[in-house]
Every structure is written in C-alpha cells, then in structure tokens.
C-alpha cells in the first residue's frame, strides 16, 4: 500500500519551495536563504549526535535510539528547537537545546558574518547526572566539543561567549555564542 504525501502547510509558491530545497542542500550559491541553510546544518548536527540525544534524557525516545546511526528527528521541536524557546512547567519535557542563527553582510569586504547562539536548558528536577556535571552544562560541553573550531559553515566557527543563567520556574541554562571566522 502506498502512502500519499501530506500537503505541507502553509502552501507556498513553487519558487519559494525551490529556495527552501536549495537551502537544505549542501551546495552554496545564489537562490537560497542563509538562515534556513545554517539552521538546517546545525539541526542535522545536533540530531545526529548520540551523546546529545542521550543527555537530553527523553524517556519516550531513548529506547528507540540507534547508537551507530542515530536519527534524532523525533527530538526536533520536542527537545531541540531552531529558535529560542522558553520552557514552561506545563511542558512534559525538562531538557532542551535551542539555537538561533544571525547573519550580517559586509558589502565592502564581500563576506557574511555568521553568529550562532545555543541555549541548553534543564529543569532543577532533572539537572543531575552521574558524571559530576549538571545536565545543562553537560549539553553545553558536548555542543562546544562538536562546534568550536570546526568548519561546519565552511569557515572556522569560534566560541566567543559561554554564560550560565537562571530562568523562571526552576529552569537553569547556559548560553554559548559562536562566531564564524571571516
């Protein structure tokens, strides 16, 4: 039995659909959106990292993880967000990774500066790990290990800030800022 493909919402013009498809590809060039392209790459990196997926401690998903070929798509928009989500006690999930990408073009130097900020979030009820490091700090450590001084965006990504913060409703978080070397 064949499954019919679901129509995507919102319904977009063919030209916008092509821009999104090109932005999610591996090539660079015109006719794509930088933010969509960079967010897609970051999400792909996060959802394929078994250490991140296990550390997020989502009991509903952990039994379905394959450590050799992790597919963390089920964590997308549940534990991993490509925008800065504010957690709520109403949510069942207690550990998050949120990230945001920003770009700034410099026409005089013909380059685009790229900034990525990650926020790792844990509720006080699920902060402790057996490694002697709090869960939000462990998630931050894994992210720094995965992204700092790498060329995930073509040029070197460098950590410029790493700050712990206290949120509302007993959530604790760490924000890590990266800048792409130009």
Summary?
By secondary structure, this protein is an alpha+beta fold. Helix content is 26%, strand content 26%. The protein contains five helices and five strands.
Compile the SSE list and pairings.
Blueprint: H1 14-23, H2 34-47, H3 50-55, H4 59-62, E1 80-81, E2 95-106, E3 111-123, H5 135-147, E4 157-166, E5 171-180
Parallel strand pairs: 1-2
Antiparallel strand pairs: 2-3, 3-5, 4-5
Estimated share of beta-strand residues: 25-35%
Q: Which spans of ≥5 residues are poorly predicted at pLDDT below 50?
A: none
* Total beta strand runs: 5
Name the quaternary structure.
single chain
Spatial order of strands in the largest sheet: 1-2-3-5-4
Return the average pLDDT rounded to an integer: 83
**Class by SSE composition:** alpha+beta
Total count of helical runs of at least 4 residues = 5
The span between the termini is 51 Å
Q: What is the approximate shape? A: globular
Rg, please?
A: 18 Å
Q: What are the secondary-structure elements, in order, as H or E?
A: HHHHEEEHEE
**Major sheet characteristics:** 5 strands, mixed
Helix content: 25-40%
What can you see in these coordinates?
With 182 residues, this protein is of the alpha+beta class. It is built from 5 helices and 5 strands, in the order ααααβββαββ. The chain has helices at residues 14-23, 34-47, 50-55, 59-62, 135-147; strands at 80-81, 95-106, 111-123, 157-166, 171-180. The chain has a 5-stranded mixed beta sheet with strand order 1-2-3-5-4. A hairpin with a 4-residue loop joins strand 2 and strand 3 (111-123). 25% of the residues are buried. The mean pLDDT is 83.
């Amino acid at each position: 039995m064949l499954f019919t493909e679901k129509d995507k919402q919102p319904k977009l013009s063919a030209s916008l659909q092509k821009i999104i498809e090109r932005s999610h590809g591996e090539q660079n060039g015109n006719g794509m959106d930088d933010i969509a392209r960079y967010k897609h790459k970051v999400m792909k990196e996060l959802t394929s990292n078994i250490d991140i997926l296990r550390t997020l401690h989502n009991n509903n998903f952990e039994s379905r993880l394959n450590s050799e070929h992790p597919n963390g798509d089920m964590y997308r928009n549940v534990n991993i967000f490509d925008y800065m989500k504010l957690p709520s006690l109403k949510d069942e999930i207690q550990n998050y990774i949120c990230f945001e990408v920003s770009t700034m073009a410099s026409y005089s130097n013909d380059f685009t500066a790229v900034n990525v900020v990650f926020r790792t979030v844990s509720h006080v009820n699920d902060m402790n790990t057996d490694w002697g490091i709090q869960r939000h700090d462990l998630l931050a450590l894994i992210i720094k290990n995965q992204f700092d001084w790498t060329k995930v965006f073509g040029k070197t990504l460098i950590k410029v800030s790493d700050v712990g913060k206290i949120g509302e409703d007993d959530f604790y978080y760490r924000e890590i800022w990266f800048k792409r070397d130009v």
